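re: ur question from earlier - yeah i can do the single chain one, its not a big deal. heres the input i used so u can compare w yours
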Amino acid sequence: MSTSTTWTVTGMTCAHCEASVREEIGELPGVESVTADHTSGEVVVTSAEPVERSAVAAAVAEAGYELA
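and the output i got, formated as tokens:
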């Protein structure tokens, strides 16, 4: 059974930003899918097991943005 978690990411301004965030979070172990919306800053992560906030924050930082 998958779990879905919603995070808020600050600094995304366009579709390219969304793609960068999706790519970095998508590389985390257990992540099945990632959706990102730059207008709301909302990022939804679907994973096999809950993903640690610190792991998501590190991936978002790697993409050049910040977890709110």
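Helices lie at 15-26, 53-63. not sure if urs matches, ping me
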